[in-house]
Design a protein that fits this description.
The chain is globular, with a radius of gyration of 18 Å. It is an alpha+beta fold. The longest helix is centred in the middle third of the chain and has 20 residues.
Length: 231
């Protein structure tokens, strides 16, 4: 049985010193920060709230916290705590800090430099271990891509679980998932009854990308992406 995370009173974001902004996505801005008491470096994610769509803590962030806090794994990014800002609609998620994401790492490699076969094997093995853990607890990630895979000191960790949800065999799920270049054919063809296979398709795209340093399929539209799959 999975041990439930212990919830404690939230600290203020003032307990952390923001060092620099490291990323900004659909679901929030991420800073490299330092705990003023422990001096530990961490990632501080400011949760974006759209007052026109929802009130209180966003569902996407609740899903993310539910997975990461209740189902920890060495290859899934760890949430340390949630802290609050100066207002009731200001929330921050404190996570362990990783030096790179795979997209940035690939772009930083010199033209003639590639991952060694042993490195590729390790990266793919860690990705599949983390994904297997999520799937074993019934969760689909639904946005596996190189920028959502963090890397540091030989460790790979899956992050950004804002689109993750429990698989429901009898329920219809949204098609607005997975970044286009990593999106499985069944979603592009309109299926709303997809399963864990969509994450494995994305893994295949990631593996090809880290092997060649180029995305495998780069369609600009869904139709173009499907044509790329057929060619």
């Amino acid at each position: 049985m999975t041990q439930q995370a212990e919830w404690k009173p939230c600290r203020s974001v003032d307990a952390f010193k923001k060092l620099n902004k490291i990323n900004e996505g659909v679901y929030g801005v991420v800073y490299r920060a330092q705990d003023k008491i422990s001096l530990e470096i961490c990632a501080l994610k400011k949760v974006k709230i759209d007052p026109q769509r929802e009130e209180g803590f966003p569902r996407s962030s609740l899903r993310e916290l539910r997975v990461m806090m209740n189902h920890p794994h060495p290859n899934v990014i760890k949430v340390k705590e949630v802290v609050i800002g100066s207002s009731l609609d200001s929330f921050f998620i404190v996570m362990e800090f990783m030096e790179h994401d795979l997209k940035q790492l690939l772009e930083s490699l010199p033209p003639a430099k590639y991952f060694l076969p042993s490195e590729l094997k390790s990266l793919l093995q860690q990705l599949l271990r983390g994904l297997s853990h999520l799937h074993s607890h019934g969760f689909l990630h639904r946005d596996i891509k190189t920028s959502n895979l963090l890397y540091g000191q030989g460790l790979l960790k899956i992050c950004d679980l804002g689109l993750a949800r429990l698989y429901n065999q009898d329920g219809k799920m949204t098609q607005e998932v997975v970044t286009l270049w990593y999106r499985a054919p069944e979603i592009l063809l309109g299926s709303r009854n997809y399963d864990y296979a969509i994450d494995l398709w994305s893994c295949g795209c990631v593996f090809a990308e880290i092997t060649t340093k180029e995305p495998l399929f780069t369609g600009k539209t869904e139709i173009e992406q499907l044509k790329n799959y057929a060619s």
